[in-house]
Amino acid sequence: MAASPVLPKLVGQRVKRREDPRLIQGLGTYVDDIKIVGMQHVAFKRSDLAHARILSVETSEAAAMPGVEAVLTGAQIAEFVDPMPIGTPFPSPDHRAVATDIVRYVGEPVAVVVASDRYLARDAADTIVIDYEPLPAVVDPERAMTGQPTQVHADFENNLAVALVPGGTGVSADLQTVDDSAVDAAFAAADVVVSQRMHNQRLAPTAMEARGVVAHYERGKDTMTIWSSTQNPHILRTFIAGMNGMGQDQVRAIAPEVGGGFGAKINIYGEEYVVAGLSKKLGLPLKWAEDRSEAFLATTHGRDIIGYIDLAATRDGKVLGMKLRLVADIGAYNMLLTAAIPTLTMMMANATYDIPAIRATLTEVFTNKTPTDAYRGAGRPEATYFVERGMDILATELGMDPAELRRKNFIQPDQFPYATQMGAVYDSGDYEKALDLGLKNADWDAMKQERDAARAEGRLVGMGLAMYVEVCGLGPSSSLPTGGWEHSQVTIERDGRISATTGASPHGQGNETTFGQMLADQFGVPLEHITIHHGDTGVVKQGIGTFGSRSQAVGGTALHLAGGKVKEKMAKFAAALIEAHEDDLVFEDGRISVKGVPDSGKTFAEVAGYAYVPVPLPEGLTPGLSEEAFFEPANNTYPFGCHISLVEVDRDTGEPTLLRLVAVDDAGNLINPLIVEGQIHGGLAQGIGQAMIEEVAYSEDGQPLTASFMDYAIPRAADFPRFELDNTVTPTPVNPLGAKGVGEAGTLGSTPCIVSATVDALSEFGVKHIDMMLRPEKLWQIIHGGQS
Amino acid sequence: MIPSAFEYERATSVDDAIAKLAATGGTGKLIAGGHSLVPLMKLRLNEPTTLIDIARISALVGIRERDGLIEIGAGTVHHDVATSALLGAQCPVVSDTAATIGDPQVRNRGTIGGSLAHADPAADYPAMLLAVDAQIHLQGAGGPRVVAAEDFFQDLFTVDLGPDEIITAVRFAPVRAAAYAKLYQRASRFAIVGVAAALEVTDGAISAARVGLTGALSSAVRLSGVETALVGQPATAATVATAATGAGAALSDVSADLHASEAYRRAMVSVFTKRALEGALARLSA
Q1: A592 within some domain
Q2: Does residue A699 sit at the B interface (CB-CB below 8 Å)?
Q3: What is the CATH number of the domain that holds B72?
Q4: What is the pLDDT of residues A20-57, one digit of tens each?
Q5: Terminal CA-CA length for chain A
Q6: Residue A417 shares a structural domain with residue A458
Q7: Average pLDDT, whole number, for chain A?
Q8: In terms of CA atoms, which chain B residue is nearest residue A714?
Q9: Chain B residues near residue A655 by CB distance under 8 angstroms
Q10: Which of A518, A605, A694, B216 shows its CA 20 to 30 Å from the CA of A577?
Q11: A713 to chain B: which residues are within 8 Å by CB?
Q12: A550-562: per-residue pLDDT in tens?
């Protein structure tokens, strides 16, 4: 017998993404590539006012255009599309998929056109005339909290969507009693108190692929297929079935290639309900493809939280207490997870520090802006930003090195699992190790010398450091209304190839590669023999989806467990076939054989074939090799890291330049360091974008000022220095892989470390804090106008 | 991002383009690279009934020497301007300016003629063309016409170009001691402020100076006050610093928007005037 090739172990290797060749060559199939015979096209007429009463909607001209199938007002849509459900336990105003009486943000749908082609649909929508009675608009959440100048929703007094939820030390589990004594004592005992108001500004997610929906209701079968650019087809299926009075068995949801989500494609949108509902009503396959202008207005935004932080400390730098008052501007409506996102900011107020007393409060406010929801990091970058900027301000106040202040306050490795003041239980961590590696890689002391030498030449150079800890690997089920598990099925096909499914529906995470690597090692077969199926509820039996950096930690574990089950069964077939004991078998190099005797065995395909034609059928076995597993994590995971940056500000223009970005990230065990680095790069890009150039802006009357890429800046590769990445490995005990998750990490440490570096660069002007983004004019004013 | 319906025609020559344009009775538009026009059409801010494609008229493309001048055909894309060996050797400010436009995709499609016809107040080329004292060559049903750059840029999106006219080329005498300096708007990469400066020096003294400004006003202009302050002075860093100092303060009707206030723009006019002049000085000795 010829010797089999020796297959290398793949887990831990820098395997190139299997997805990329098709995507780079334009061979991917996205929602807008879906075509169905007879398919009609949907366009939405949207509000161009931020707040107004709809007096009339004139659709007759549109309806008369040849090729226009239907024109519907909000009231007509409301006859078959119920108010939109949300996924959080907070009170929510009536939210129609298409406005019926009042519009509350620019971009809110007001009418719908169905026509034979996309251009005609748009032309028809342009002819719809809406008579509005303008109402005052409010865009400043702190003004909105006074109830002036308008009520966004009549039933929510002072525009409070969530009114002052307390958290932290001395707050009972039911939130009914709040004992401030420990926090008050901490502040009374402090030598130093620093306070700062900060704004974590509003961002537009700007996925490269905007949203899109195709819905096809088949009357004869009474089934619905919906294709959507979504992060979670199973959740979409649940909501679409519910909205249409159908069973989940009757609805199939498909997420084909998804060109980025960044959290904004978790939400189930009005357009999805309308297109699906209209397909059922009209009996026609329908498509809606969002254009970029719509995406800036109608896809949820992220962030937009004001934080007031007070830190109480001893003179030698021990933090005794913290107060963090959060005011979140959630825009005009509650979407699926909107109200929950800022609660994650509150939950992570402890950051990486052993702070004995914390009082956090959260208020969420309606304004006349696009609703917010998850955006990469979703609540945790905001917490990291507020606390880390606060720590930097404290370090400056104390005259301490920012690294040493942090070192003095870290939660120590022997304190894990660590129950925070905020109710989280951090699974594992070694923050000082990450800090030390960051300082070493940055060469912190040399960086200081470089900075000081530059300053001696009159240049404005500064350095910044930030630690972060984030929540990843969401669930468990107690933390998510959808359930927090994940599902996988692994099938050894008759020819020895492997098909596996995952409910963690990727939109850039690279699961086809990483999950393939895991199975290749588990079964000793080539990666090329494995296909990972995802994003189709008709193929993937169950699932939750991809968000909260959960694919690997939760989805990967489900895959690992399902693989283990089928491997166990396959070993029994192999044992019968080669007359050995199953415990003595190894799966290696495409063969199953007795350990140490490679020639003793059978090929993987031979054993697979036997399992499907089991003559004779071994006692106690059923035919076939296909097993599934649900994995329910016992806790979240808490990855962490240390980011350091060097920034120079142009004295004449105020333009900031990022000179260095050093990142140490600890995501636990890594399956594919190349993909992990890609995730860090992407997260850093968006974090740097937030710190330096991205900001959604509105005029005072609620008109969006950054509704195209001509005015909304996103970073380009050429804007970055070479990222200096490294990692520590602190496995999580929460799952058998020891993997924590990494998709969002880059957005956490980057923003505060860049702002801190910029404040440091401008320290000669006495500035204590600068709000993002770092608009050159803002920095120029600090340099030339003595303002801060 | 869905334009309204339009007809499409391809012109085979300049005369053919002029005839086709005239036939639309003022409702048609010429299109070359489309990088100014198509975004407007997608937003339905511009809805031409007919697009006349001039991108394949070979006579409009190319960079060449003619009669002691350099001529850039109107259909030449920014990338070719940015990488021209002829311009690099004889008039590098032109290449430098082109290299700051947009991104590689824009530079590979967008043309100098299209940019000039569109006349975005923050476009880069106008400042440079003022500094090199370019002539804009036009052709219409009535024949050819030449307009000095200084007279061409009139107001916001307004230039001296008739409805049936086509820009065929720009021509200028090469000048080595010239430079362009620009403050980028960070989303669009247009100029918040862009300044091009060209100097002529005789026996160590500045004998002529032309300084063009874009981005700060409704259209590109020459900074005559700065030019006057330079002429007759020694070609030194101190001279240009002094001349640039008040450049911004001297302007009226300075633009303000989300990206830069009026005060900031004024200050940046002075900063980038100085930088452009310093760049021009550096080329004197290079």
Answers
A1: yes
A2: no
A3: 3.30.465.10
A4: 999 999 999 999 999 999 999 999 999 999 999 999 99
A5: 78
A6: yes
A7: 97
A8: B187
A9: 183
A10: A518
A11: 186-187
A12: 999 999 999 999 9
pLDDT for the residue numbered A2: 47
**Distance (Å) from the alpha carbon of B24 to chain A's nearest alpha carbon:** 22
- CB proximity A65 to B under 8 Å: no
**Under 8 Å between Cβ of B153 and B177:** no
Please tell me what DSSP assigns to residue B186.
T
Query: Could you tell me the residue range of the domain that residue A271 belongs to?
Result: 34-135+208-260+265-298
Nearest to A556 by CA among A338, A698, A776, A737: A737
Same domain as A603, residue A489: yes
Q: Are B129 and B86 within one domain?
A: yes
In a mutational test of the B interface, the residue from A42, A206, A708, A774 whose CB has the highest number of chain B CBs within 10 Å is: A708
DSSP E strand boundaries for A698-763: 724-727
ipTM above 0.90, yes or no: yes
Q: Are A462 and A645 in contact (CB under 8 A)?
A: no
Going along B91-157, which residue ranges are E strands?
Answer: 135-140, 143-148, 153-155
**What residues of B are in contact with residue A777 (Cβ under 8 Å)?**
259-261, 264
- Asked whether residue B31 is domain-assigned, the answer is yes
Of the ranges A480-484, A594-598, B150-154, the best mean pLDDT one: B150-154
CATH number, domain of B240, equals: 3.30.390.50
Give the percent of chain B with pLDDT over 70: 100
Torsion of CA A750, A752, A755, A760, to 10 degrees: -110
- Tell whether the model's pLDDT for residue B93 goes beyond 50: yes
Nearest to B127, CA basis, from B223, B265, B243: B223
Burial status of residue B151 (CB atoms within 10 A of its CB: 0-12, 13-18, 19 or more): exposed
Pair A584, A720 in one domain: no
Give the per-residue pLDDT at A1. 44
Do residues A590 and A663 both lie within one domain?
A: no
Q: CB contact, 8 Å: A697 with chain B?
A: yes
Against a cut of 0.90, is the pTM above it? yes
Instruction: Quickly state the pLDDT bin for B282 (edges 50, 70, 90).
Output: very high
Q: How many helices (H) and strands (E) does chain A have?
A: 20, 28
Residues A605-661: tens digit of each pLDDT: 999 999 999 999 999 999 999 999 999 999 999 999 999 999 999 999 999 999 999
Q: Nearest Cα to A360, choosing from A320, A328, A323, A398? A: A323
The answer to the question of residue A153 being in a domain is no
Residue A142 inside a domain? The answer is no
- Shortest Cα distance, chain B CAs vs residue A698, angstroms: 10
**A747-784 core/surface letters (b: 16 or more CB in 10 A; e: else):** bbbbbbbbbbbbbbbbeebebebbbbbbbbbbbbbbbe
Q: Give the DSSP letter string of A242-277.
A: HHTT--GGGEEEE--S----TTTTTSPPHHHHHHHH
Measure A656 CA to nearest chain B CA, in Å: 11
Judging contacts by C-beta atoms under 8 Å, the chain B residues touching residue A204 are: none
Same-domain check for residues B154 and B209:
no
**In this structure, what are the phi and psi dihedrals at residue A390, rounded to the nearest 5 degrees?**
-60, -45
Mean pLDDT for the stretch of residues A351-379: 98
For chains A and B, count residue pairs whose Cβ atoms are closer than 8 Å.
50
Residues B145 and B65 in one domain: yes
Residue B168 C-alpha, separation from nearest chain A C-alpha, in angstroms: 28
Best of B186, B190, B254, B259 to disrupt the A interface (most A CBs within 10 Å) is B186
Q: Is the peptide bond before A417 cis (omega within 30 degrees of 0)?
A: yes
Please name the residue of chain A whose CA is at the shortest distance from the CA of residue B262.
A777
Residues of B in contact with A783 (CB under 8 A): none
Q: Å from A128 to nearest chain B CA? A: 15
Collapse the DSSP code of A649 into the 3-class scheme (helix H, G, I; strand E, B; otherwise coil) and give the result. strand
b/e burial code for range A288-306 (CB count within 10 A of at least 16 → b): bbbbebbbbbbbbbbbbbb
Residue B80 lies in a domain: yes
The mean pLDDT value for A90-102 works out to 97
Is residue A787 pLDDT above 50, yes or no? no
